[in-house]
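testing teh design pipeline on a random one, pls ignore if ur not involved
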């Protein structure tokens, strides 16, 4: 289980898009669904870009509670511009809760794993990718691994990798 803040920040720096579109959201959401199925897991998935939901899917076995968790985790990314897992580990390292440190309502903000910032290089955070249904660290890993897979398949990355070999 990764709890090192520097490693978590490195994930955020690494997992950035050159551009993002509705089609990218569809590919990413579908990949997360596929990866959850491989784990025999039931999750709800949300991809929000500039406040606009581009992908939302609730697998059989999820409940409306998962949508509530998604909203609370997404609020953390929207406010702090870091993954919800990172923010949970950040406050844990400080020995405080998010409520104590930031005076936010726990009913609205959940610093638990599963929401990751959607970042466009040279632009910044433009949204989030959020999953709910697994234990919180596994939610985080599902999102990170799916982002890594999709980004490794992007044409820009393939060209760079081919030219470096």
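output:
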């Amino acid at each position: 289980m990764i709890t090192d803040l520097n490693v978590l920040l490195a994930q955020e720096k690494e997992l950035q898009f050159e551009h993002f579109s509705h089609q990218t959201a569809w590919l990413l959401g579908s990949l997360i669904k596929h990866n959850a199925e491989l784990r025999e897991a039931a999750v709800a998935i949300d991809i929000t870009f500039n406040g606009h939901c581009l992908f939302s899917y609730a697998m059989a076995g999820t409940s409306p509670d998962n949508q509530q968790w998604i909203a609370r985790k997404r609020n953390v990314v929207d406010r702090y511009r870091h993954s919800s897992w990172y923010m949970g580990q950040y406050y844990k390292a400080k020995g405080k809760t998010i409520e104590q440190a930031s005076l936010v309502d726990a009913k609205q903000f959940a610093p638990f794993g599963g929401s990751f910032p959607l970042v466009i290089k040279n632009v910044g955070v433009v949204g989030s990718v959020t999953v709910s249904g697994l234990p919180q660290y596994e939610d985080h890993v599902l999102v990170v691994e799916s982002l890594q897979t999709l980004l490794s398949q992007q044409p820009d990355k393939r060209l760079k990798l081919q030219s470096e070999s």
